[in-house]
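In keeping with the milestone schedule agreed at the kick-off meeting, the structural modelling team has produced records for the first pair of proteins. Each record is given below as a sequence line and a structure-token line. The laboratory manager (R.T.) confirmed that both were archived under the project's standard naming scheme.
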Amino acid sequence: MQVLDFRLSGAIVRVSLDSPPSASVHRIARTRSTDVADASASLSDAAAGASLTAPGRLLPGRLDLGGDLPSARVTAATLPAARALLELLDSPTTEALAAAAGKGTPGVTVPEDGEGPSATGNGSADTGPAGGTAGGTAGGTGSPGGSADGAPAAAGTPSSPPPHGDDPDFFAFDVETANADEGSVIQFGIAAVRDGKVAETYSWPCRPPAGLEQFDEDNIAIHGITPSDVVDAPPFADVAEKFGRLVDGTPVVAHNAKFDFTALKRGCAAAGIDVPDVAYACTYLWARRVGLQVENYRLPTLAREAGAADFDHHDAAADAAACAEVALWLMREHPGPEPTTNPVKYSENLGMEMGMLFGKRLVPMQTTGQSQVTSGAGGARRKAARSGGAAAQDRRAKWDAVKAPEVIPEKNEDADPDGLLFGQNVTLTGDFAPYDKGRLWELIAQAGATVGKNTTKKTTILVAGPWDSMTSKEKKAREYKDKGQDIEIWDEKQLFTVLGLEETPPF
């Protein structure tokens, strides 16, 4: 025997005493469906830079190796294997190798002949990556009904630590802000999902970054958090760093994730720190992609559909737990051909790619292909098959969300004549989620404008919502504008502002 595998969280370190002695790290993919390529170094180089940061009460630890090998996450369950590896690196002999194999340390195994590290497991599988807890407990409190920091727990939070040592399958995430600037984060809410259940919630208040400390009354009215509630809380930078260490490569889901991760990005920029590297999915986009027939796609609405208990909406920890429940419900009740509870695989089933936050970039989720997920069970699947399959259903769901209503509302002649829309001829094109286009037409008409279905020479305002490419209505409006027609082209945010709507959370 000249080879031994040490299974850590999301990685396998293989030590070989064959000539030449070497160490290799196989990273188990957690945010994509294929594993990461192996990295190898000489055993002496790996040992020269080896160090271990043990996991704490809440956050995971880390094993660093020399020779430009990637580091590995270490949790309470994988700490014995990490320590055994360091002992072996300190004395890399055949006798030490045999002793390490004979101790029966969890996570230390002798590979079978011809077995490569990738054969030992794949973090993209539904069971999640091999490994341990995020620090062993939800926060060390162990108090009944308590969250990670002793705050009231959201629905689904256990009163004691989980009885096993698995890494979370994924995290759900939410933030609350002090004012209209997304970067003014004052509360992080996180829910850890293990074995298909919400296992723990984390409620982390913080002081907003310098320059963004102003609390708006509108925001306080929504979440109830005041300056005095966070005056003794740690600064945003400390909590953002803690969030990055907790997540550490685990997929994250959020509801209307664009808001939450824009908030994280802007907060980090204001605090002068690097953003955590995060791969994320959005339950709001998932629900729209599935084509759910619901009143709206707000979090409380979807949580009710998912059968989740009532929750304290706009408490970040409670919202994160509700988001996790919605994510699990969507993955179970609206599966693809290969059912999964892994956000990476489910996004792929939907024909989508995970969003990414890294460096200074926020990359939104992208549509990459046809969805294999249906909006219902057997009957809906059969109906989709008769009408052209999943691709046809995708197209119908997409167009149904943006199609114009049949009846144009009459404009309000008694509206405020000083309003920006009074007397205008307004046409909408594209997607205006989360608002129904018929509802927007009604509000535009109430403001004293004439609503048009198409772009004509009478059109004075064309509002272009997001779409895969420039729509024909927008192309025609730009052509008219180039020819001298007095026509303004707005984006959806301008319209929402004029109508007094909010285009981003709170949802």
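The second protein of the pair:
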Amino acid sequence: MASMIISPTFSVNRSSRDCKILKNTIRQCQGIKAMHIEKPLEELYNIRVERKVSRDRLAELGVSKWSAWKTDKCKLPWDWQVDQLVYIEEGEVRVVPEGSKKYMRFVAGDLVRYPKWFEADLFFNAPYQERYSFRAYGDDH
């Protein structure tokens, strides 16, 4: 057996006084602005950064034994096939994720963990040098 719900129809007649009150209320609320909170790119792309890494931390990781890479001013499209841990020894890099107009900036002294499958353009504006180590999934050392 089917049931039917019937809802009543309402009609509202507002007086001019009610409209004035409503307009004043709206005018008073115009100072309220919507907030749009955007996550940092590092969080969006799961990139972990440690700034101004201590010598003890570098020794713990064995950074001095990692492979070295350096370049001069250039733009390099890159995609990470594995997780990579990078310690920036000299210079800076701007990392623009694929499809983004925003960038992350990493400088000498930063330890950066790039996740597998991340794609970005790397911009180097001066001599740059890093040490890097490929990581297995879940290897957070």
